[in-house]
Each structure stands twice: as structure tokens, then as C-alpha cells.
Design brief:
Number of helices: 5
Number of strands: 5
CATH architecture of the domain at 16-113: 2-Layer Sandwich
Mean pLDDT: 79
Structural class: alpha+beta
Largest sheet: 5 strands, mixed
Shape: globular
Order of helices and strands: HEHEEHEEHH
């Protein structure tokens, strides 16, 4: 996933590099034994995505994850193709895709949900449709709101 740096700005516009895309998808951990293994894989993705200028917000537990990635249209399309063809065991499902004017995330944000009372109460009462965190039971609007809310809480805790 490399962008040619010698392209003219006109040529770059032909492929949509100037358009920012936000893609949200959910996944299920069906092959790895723990969420830690999944987190390691996603850490590898983080390093790769940072190199190519993609930002992201990721919420993960031992069984499921929600990820939103943002970047130029061609890169997001390449990532989507790779996700579906190479990581099919994560059972990825698209939740939302849209053109955006500016990025929402600064870098690659990760929130690992634990079984702590705080995480459980927040996620289950506010956004989940079941007894446990399971984004497959959530509507697209709930998924989007959940990402925004959980990282707004993370940012306010830093202050």
C-alpha cells in the first residue's frame, strides 16, 4: 500500500487522493484465543497505517471490535480489500462509509474494553443491545455514537 510521490496534483485528483473517507466496520475474533492476540494484530495494523497516513479509532475486547479508519479514498479502498481478502477470519462487516471534510482522530486511538464494572456499565447501558459488548447487535448509529463517546471520555480523562 504505497502511494507514488511523483504524481502530479492533477493526476492525484483523478484517483481521489484528495478526498478523505471515513470507514467504520465491526469484526469478531473467531480464530485467536484471546483479545490480546487480536490487539497484537491490530497493533501491527496501526504501525502500517501510520506509515501511510491513515488515522483510526479502535475499540476491542476479547471477542469483538469496532474500528473507524480515515484517510484518502484509494488507501481506504486498499485497506478494505485487504481486510476482506486476507483477514476473513475476523468476520468484518461494514457499518458506515462517508466522505469527510476533516479527520476526527489524531493518530491511532485504541480502547481495550475490560470486564471492569466501569467499562461494562458504560458500554452496556449506553450502547449495546445485549448482555455483553457485541457490536453485531448494535445499529450503525449506535456504533458511530459509541466510538465518539468512548474517545471523548478518553480525551477528557487526559486533561
Amino acid at each position: 500500500m504505497q502511494i507514488m510521490t511523483s504524481q502530479t496534483s492533477e493526476n492525484r485528483k483523478r484517483h481521489g487522493e484528495h478526498l478523505l473517507i471515513s470507514l467504520t466496520y465491526i469484526g469478531k475474533n473467531i480464530e485467536m484465543k484471546t483479545g490480546i492476540e487480536l490487539a497484537r494484530l491490530l497493533e501491527q495494523w496501526r504501525r502500517n497505517n501510520e506509515k501511510i497516513g491513515v488515522t483510526s479509532a479502535l475499540v476491542v475486547n476479547d471477542n469483538y471490535f469496532i474500528q473507524n479508519i480515515e484517510g484518502p479514498r484509494p488507501l481506504i479502498n486498499e485497506i478494505l480489500v485487504k481486510l476482506i481478502s486476507e483477514y476473513f477470519y475476523l468476520v468484518p462487516h461494514l457499518s458506515e462509509i462517508e466522505e469527510i471534510e476533516e479527520r476526527r482522530w489524531d493518530g491511532f486511538l485504541i480502547k481495550y474494553l475490560t470486564s471492569s464494572a466501569e467499562d461494562e456499565a458504560y458500554t452496556l447501558k449506553s450502547f449495546s443491545a445485549g448482555a455483553d459488548f457485541n457490536p453485531y447487535l448494535m445499529k450503525s448509529t449506535q456504533i458511530t455514537s459509541f466510538l465518539k463517546a468512548i474517545f471523548a471520555v478518553s480525551e477528557s480523562n487526559k486533561s
